[in-house]
Amino acid sequence: MKKTVVIDVVGLTTGLIGENTPFLKEWSLKASQATVQPVMPAVTCTAHATYYTGKWPDEHGIVANGWYYRDVCEVRNWHQSNKLVEAPKIWEVAKELDPTFTCANMGWWFNMYSSVDYSVTPRPQYLEDGRKFPDCYTQPADLRDYLQAKFGTFPLFTYWGPNTNIKSTQWLADASIEVDQKYNPTLTLIYLPHLDYNLQRIGPEDPRIATDLQEIDKVCKQLVEYYESKGAQVILLSEYGITQVDRPIMLNRVLRKEGLLAIREERGLELLDAGASDAFAVADHQIAHIYVKNEADIPRIKKLIEAVPGVDKVYAGKEREQLHLAHSRAGEIIAIADARSWFGYYYWFDDAKAPDFARLVAIHKKPGFDPVELHADPKIKFLLPKVAFKVLKKKLGFRMLMDIIPLDPTLVKGSHGRMPDSRKEYPLIMTKNKDLLGQSHIQPTEVFDVILAHLKSQKEVAV
């Protein structure tokens, strides 16, 4: 099979390629380019699973970045086991066609306990005293120590949170090149998340995005020039575009007002009690899964959600088939926000009763996705000294809470997940192997076919 690398530049759209991305602009002129119909929801976990299985979410089972586990009555986000993906993956299909085929997964999601040959994924250490240390998980296991000795510990706190920057993306790029030199895999999948951060934090219309575009352009140049020098075919890809937003929607507060959502109070703070609730929402950017205990309540709750300002469409029961989301993991009702809105997970009415994790970067604790984690609370005076003191306490072994995340969802200026109104905000795919991308628009399931066609191609493509 032909050596191929797929570089996922999160958030990249045709409208972002221009004067601030000189390398990508020049490379795209030599390539064939198509928009990709966003999978629903247009979020990382669902997009990755769709791309590498060629199946819709109702077949592979990844209906969001997280969902309600009905057997344990818990919402769980950002799990990493590849066993959750309920369909054959492209590397498994390729291995059947060519036993010598190997694959490296450098950051694409569900990257633990996978059948790939080589993998790298962020995986913090969670200590019993509450401390969290940056780390990563690899296959083979000793690759972890090898990469971190060469490039430093994986920079977790620049990968997500108020301090996100190019460092984590650069680390993944450097590690990808090192893995290629060490193992020479046939297929390499690379995840470059950098644009995801400020596009959500300050919005795509903010002129400061120019800096982010310049930074990701340099990383793409490094990777593309390296892999092309090795004779590899390069596919540039993205998962979704990010839209300017200004209206957060808190469906759990709506459900609570109707007496449908159960709350448990501990130490004066409120926790959503999913197992005891008649209905609650798991928010994920511009889509929300509403889980309903009693089937008879579905029509009433659907009507309630449809009346909420900022909600564009609501699907229930068999209607979810239109989104390819009629799966047991999905909510009984699925809500889609309008173009300027997004869904938050908040369920409390009094910030004094918000759970302690609300003010933390706590992606596994919250019953939904929280982009406010990209912001530090602007009301905190002397923020940097406060953070430095907390870090010092952690290093000395003391318990501490990094409670610097605000409870102001209006700070979020960009979101994704719905079907954008314009194709200019669709994800894209580009390749210099023009014969293998003859269309100007493809379905998300067809990304699988494009990658497989590259692997099977014997044509030499000029760089």
From TrEMBL:
One matching Pfam family: Phosphodiest
InterPro entries: Alkaline_phosphatase_core_sf (IPR017850), Phosphodiest/P_Trfase (IPR002591), Phosphonoacetate_hydro_insert (IPR023116)
GO terms assigned for molecular function: hydrolase activity
Family annotation (CDD domains): Enpp
PANTHER family: BIS(5'-ADENOSYL)-TRIPHOSPHATASE (PTHR10151:SF120), ECTONUCLEOTIDE PYROPHOSPHATASE/PHOSPHODIESTERASE (PTHR10151)
Protein name listed in UniProt: Alkaline phosphatase family protein
Source species: Xanthocytophaga flava
